[in-house]
TrEMBL record:
Enzyme Commission designation: 1.11.1.24
GO biological process: cell redox homeostasis; cellular response to oxidative stress
Organism taxonomic ancestry: Bacteria, Pseudomonadati, Pseudomonadota, Alphaproteobacteria, Hyphomicrobiales
Family, per entry: Belongs to the peroxiredoxin family. BCP/PrxQ subfamily.
Function: Thiol-specific peroxidase that catalyzes the reduction of hydrogen peroxide and organic hydroperoxides to water and alcohols, respectively. Plays a role in cell protection against oxidative stress by detoxifying peroxides and as sensor of hydrogen peroxide-mediated signaling events.
One Gene Ontology cellular component annotation held by this UniProt entry: cytoplasm
Protein name: thioredoxin-dependent peroxiredoxin
Region feature (Disordered): 1-81
Ranges of residues in domain Thioredoxin: 89-240
UniProt xrefs under InterPro entries: AhpC/TSA, Peroxiredoxin_BCP/PrxQ, Thioredoxin-like_sf, Thioredoxin_domain
Record Pfam families: AhpC-TSA
Organism: Bradyrhizobium canariense
Record's compositionally biased regions (Low complexity): 11-28
Amino acid sequence: MSKKTRKKSSKTSSGKLARAESAAAAEKPATKKRQTAAAIKSAKRTLKKTGKKTGKQPRNAVPAASHQAPSKRLKSPASKPAAAKFGNLAEGSKAPAFRLPRDGGETVSLSDFAGRKLVLFFYPRADTPGCTKEAIDFTRLAEAFAANQTAVLGVSADPLKAQESFRNKHQLSVPLASDEKHEMLEAYGAWGEKSMYGRSFLGVFRTTVLIGPDGRVVRIWRNVKVDGHADEVLAAVRAA
């Protein structure tokens, strides 16, 4: 190879090397930028997953949604459930007077039972399984209550027509009264806010009250469980 050819080849190699070094130098900042951007993205993803809070959050960062349960809404005294009135009806206190329409087209009042014991059983709704069983159980024991000078009266917020259909369908012998305005139910603490399947509504609390011959409350059963309840009330009547 001639000197001229070697010089030309050397110049060509030097030029290629210079261009390669220049390209590498130019690529370094770009690579560094890409690596930095990738690191920032990775950090953001980690922050989202772990929910960790740092002293400073990136600008334009959207705060992650909180998974904490919302705080319970406080109620004002005006919206307090009527169940709170149950505290006013205590054993030994005078039973609130009432006058209600009953099945058969008549009316019934507390004064009708003066000198006798009276069992009031408040039930949520006529002709539902639990209420039906409870009414049938009190009917089954009606004669035993009568033998102990005790009357029995069922009360709910159902219309009178529904009460009469309930009586006829199940051949109930105990009288049933209708309190559609909820005045008596509230006075006896058997009406208020209830909750079922996450839904709140106003309704009747299954409650039983035993009133003595002097018109005073002898015993109160709250949150009644139907099975065996009528028998338990009869036992209390006999012991009173």
